[in-house]
Design goal:
This protein is of the alpha+beta class. The protein has an 11-stranded antiparallel sheet. Strands 7, 8, 13, 19, 21 and 22 form a 6-stranded antiparallel sheet that branches. Strand 16 (197-198) and strand 17 (205-206) form a beta hairpin. This is Cellobiose phosphorylase.
Length: 897
């Protein structure tokens, strides 16, 4: 069975013959803007943004059909041309034969090494690639050619990488015309491309980014360059069969040569080399971005030596190791290493956004509203410094009608007004800010953040996108103002209240929150008029209850008895509970509120008693939960029961029995469980139904939905997808992980573990998943992991394993310990550990289960901090944590009996 093997405890892994799987790609990046990806054949691309691609942009299908790769040719005396990356016509012909070259991949966090063996001439090529963790915008390669034979090895080496050097938009939009902008020149150690303009017919701009390819080898001279594609491949040639390599007809040009208006080529020819048996020669290559020629050359030269390359590689390995500051130790070392990659994935998401990897061939970088908040979950656990400011900035995207900006800028807290006439609201967006803020408060105890003030976002969308504000003046900027023209600010508590209160009133005919443009499932996008999301109505109910708890704690902690909120919000709080069942009255209240706030706000504030406020929120929460239990609990003809999660655009209940078969969607079960809407008895029945209709071991666990066998145009585009792919019935990791989280939260631990274990077992089985370590966005009907690295499921899985499985969580700044580990998760010595950071202090918690008891049978008997017994406690107090040394690792030992 083909599988990868971990080589250490930091996720480094080894895989034989990875190029036999077409969909593999690996990220190489830094926090200074370089976003590359590399395949086993050294394909992929590199870019620093949508408009600045060094290599030609690739989507997943380009990985097997694009010849524009990072190549390194070795023309061997007596044998002929051989590619160190496997990309030659002769080598490709052998891919399916017994003469196929053997290859090995070794990779760790953001570094990649491919080794290739040619048995005919006893030569080995090892190509190491990475992007340094420094501020330099470069990608680095080391190519080591080794003579494994018994005789001398003579060869001439040529580095050959085509330079795309422009915007991704120009793949189809003026591809040839934009090559006319290229100003190409050769310098002593490379080729530099300086496009004259950034081509955009809406307004051409002067180009400010240069692209350079540089090379060196100790004791080996560069004899010339191939600066254009046409010169390199020749008439009738291609990148796998280039005339410059296969013949002597095309001569390299010297340093100082200039040519304009062609597709650029990073071609560097080295002088002939003779390696004795056992000798090797290393070549160093740099793909660089710069703002001027001198800067670009200077930056590249730092890395064009063995010392410079390996110093940067060592620093990068240590840097990323310091960033992944959570390590799990269970009885399964493979799971521990797999989780190491999962822990790293939120960092990749912050670098790449939701774009710029081969599967993620949409958007132009950046993240969406949901991503801003869910990615913060992992950040709060891994690196909480600066999260407070980030949370405050993010609240600046909330509109006064409870919706939010959907165009997010590149700067922290930057939100951009929609000028493209796109009026769309995702009804789940109001849920996530409170979930993230609540975790922040639990981790830090900083309840006062609720009192901080922040602006509101303002654009032409009003009435929760139902109308346009014709009086809005874009020249005034994108901030809500009072009728006097002053920028209005409200507390963070006010922002959260608005998001959740407006959702309570924005209901459809069944008194659940309107689905509008979509909820978390973006593909439920065709029920804007009459669609309703029962699933997220339940989660809003949980939010209202959680917010009431936070307000109570605010009162207890600060002695604040009342809070100031905008006068207009009073009507949303003073609604008579007797009318909660009345859909029309709810709509009237929301409409009246929106009317008062459509262009500006009065600026007046009213004091609201905290106790009355929390009581009102709890009443709303309990009404929603009771309503859902009463109206949406269904039992089908087979006797299985679960919650209906949606209404379609014809106002019909979506789930239950249908002529085509059973219709069940996982989302409605997840959020009724997570929010406390489902009773314990109902959870037992939900588990039975979900196991019966959605669990599929051969594709990794819980599918998102059953097969509706209908193009359901009154609900969403997902039903146009083939069943078993993406949102239509795939194992969608995000929802499967949130299902696990919900079950753990409600103490259904064995069922929660099953959801996580199923995903791990499947995805870590390379033969089935065809995926490198980590969690993918989904698993398709063939069992293949799809859309790797940039998935929000990584944040939720990290949150679940640390705070639920290991029971490491905050309680208003105190560190709580409450493990929910099953007995098979302890190692041979009956212990399980986790290293993490909490309140800027480093900890390692070790649980001892010497009696080998199962969860539910054991309890904490004793806790020791750095060897000192803390008898009778199940938490480490905040005051004690603040006194601890920030530099050392503090050991907490917990004995279970």
């Amino acid at each position: 069975m083909k599988k990868y093997r971990f080589l250490d405890e930091y996720g480094t892994f080894y895989l034989d013959n990875p190029e036999s799987t077409n969909i593999l790609y690996f990220p190489l990046a830094n926090e200074s803007g370089v976003m590359s990806c590399v395949t086993p054949y050294l394909g992929g691309d590199s870019k620093i943004g949508q408009d600045y691609f060094w290599l030609e942009p690739v989507s997943i299908e380009n990985l097997h059909n694009n010849r524009s790769t990072r190549n390194f040719w070795v023309n061997i005396e007596g044998y002929g041309p051989w590619s160190a990356t496997g990309v030659s016509a002769r080598q490709q012909l052998k891919v399916f034969s017994k003469d196929k070259e053997e290859t090995v991949l070794e990779a760790g966090i953001l570094w990649h090494r491919m080794t290739r063996y040619n048995k005919d001439v006893k030569i080995k090529a090892t190509v190491t690639s990475f992007v340094p963790c420094s501020k330099d915008t470069v990608e680095l390669m080391e190519v080591v050619i080794s003579n494994l034979g018994s005789g001398d090895l003579k060869f001439t080496a040529t580095a050959a990488v085509p330079i795309y050097g422009r915007s991704a938009d120009n793949i189809r939009d003026h591809r040839h015309v934009t090559s006319l902008l290229h100003r190409i020149k050769t310098v002593d150690n490379g080729v530099i491309v300086n496009p004259t303009l950034k081509f955009d017919e809406r307004g051409h701009r002067k180009n400010e980014v240069l692209y350079g390819f540089f090379g060196s080898a100790d004791g080996v001279n560069i004899t010339g360059f191939y600066p254009t594609v046409a010169e390199f491949i020749g008439d009738g040639g291609n990148f796998e069969h280039p005339e410059a390599i296969l013949t002597d007809h095309v001569k390299p040009v010297p340093s100082g040569y200039a040519v304009n208006g062609y597709e650029a080529m990073g071609g560097i020819r080295f002088e002939e080399i003779c390696l004795k048996p056992g000798e090797e020669k290393a070549f160093y290559l740099v793909l660089g971005y710069g703002n001027d020629e001198k800067e670009l050359i200077y930056t590249a030269e730092k890395y064009l030596s063995k010392a410079g390359f390996h110093k940067a590689l060592g620093e990068s390995k240590e840097y990323w190791k310091s960033r992944v500051n959570i390590k799990f130790e269970t009885g399964n070392k493979e799971f521990d290493n797999w989780m190491y990659w999962v822990t790293f994935q939120p960092i990749l998401r912050r670098i790449y956004g939701c774009s710029f990897l081969p599967h993620h061939d949409y958007g132009k970088g950046g993240r969406g509203w949901r991503d801003l908040w869910q990615d913060c979950l992992a950040l709060l656990i891994m690196n909480p410094a600066g999260v407070r400011e980030m949370i405050l900035n993010n609240f600046g995207g909330v509109r006064i009608d409870g919706t939010n900006a959907t165009i997010i800028g590149t700067k922290p807290g930057e939100f951009i007004a929609d000028r493209n006439n796109i009026t769309r609201v995702w009804m789940d967006h109001g849920v996530w800010p409170l979930i993230t803020t609540k975790l922040y408060i639990e981790q830090t105890g900083d309840i006062e953040i609720l009192l901080e003030e922040k602006e509101y976002f303002k654009d032409a969308q009003i009435y929760r996108s139902d109308k346009k504000d014709l009086d809005w003046d874009p020249e005034q900027g994108s901030l809500l103002r009072t009728k006097d023209g002053e920028v209005y600010k409200g507390s963070i508590l006010e922002h959260i209240l608005l998001q959740n209160l407006t959702a309570f009133y924005d209901v459809g005919e069944h008194n659940h929150i309107r689905l509008r443009g979509a909820d978390w499932n973006d593909a439920l996008d065709m029920a804007k008029e009459r669609g309703e999301s029962v699933a997220f109505t339940a989660l809003y109910a949980g939010n209202l209850s959680d917010l009431a708890d936070l307000i109570d704690y605010l009162t207890e902690k600060t002695d604040i008895k009342a809070v100031n909120i905008a006068k207009e919000i009073e009507m949303l709080l003073n609604f008579d509970p007797e009318h909660y069942d009345d859909v029309n009255k709810k709509k009237e209240v929301l409409n009246a509120y929106n009317q008062q706030c459509q262009s500006y706000i009065s600026g007046e504030k009213k004091a609201v008693d905290c106790r009355e406020l929390s009581d009102a929120l709890r009443r709303m929460s309990e009404w929603i939960k009771t309503h859902i239990r009463k109206k949406e609990w269904i039992t089908n003809s087979d006797g299985y029961s679960w919650f209906n999660g949606y209404y379609d655009n014809n106002g019909r209940q979506v789930e239950g029995d249908a002529p085509s078969g059973v219709r069940l969607m996982l989302t409605g079960q997840v959020f009724t469980v997570m929010s406390g809407t489902a009773t314990d008895e109902q959870i037992h029945k939900i588990i039975e139904a979900v196991d019966k209709y959605l669990y599929d071991e051969k594709v990794g666990g819980y599918r998102l939905n059953t097969d509706f066998k209908e193009l359901k145009t009154d609900l969403g585009r997902m039903f146009g997808f083939a069943y078993g792919h993406k949102e239509n019935g795939a194992v969608f990791s995000h929802m499967a992980v949130m299902y696990a989280y919900a079950l753990y939260k409600r103490n259904f631990v064995r069922a929660g573990f099953k959801a996580i274990e199923s995903l791990f077992r499947h995805l870590s089985n390379f033969e089935k998943s065809k995926a490198y370590p980590g969690i993918t966005e989904y698993i398709n009907d063939k069992g293949e992991g799809m859309y790797h690295y940039l998935t929000g499921s990584a944040s939720w899985l990290l949150l679940t394993v640390l705070t639920q499985m290991y029971g490491i969580k905050g309680s208003y700044g105190n560190l709580m310990l409450g493990p929910k580990l099953l007995k098979e998760q302890f190692d041979d010595e009956k212990k399980a550990s986790v290293s993490f950071t909490f309140s800027n202090k480093k900890f390692k918690v070790t649980y001892y289960n010497k009696n080998n008891k199962e969860y539910g049978d054991y309890k904490i008997s004793e806790i020791a901090l750095d060897g000192k017994n803390l008898s009778g406690l199940i938490q480490i107090d905040k005051d004690l944590i603040e006194r601890l040394d920030s530099e050392k690792v503090h050991h907490i030992e917990v004995w279970l009996i």
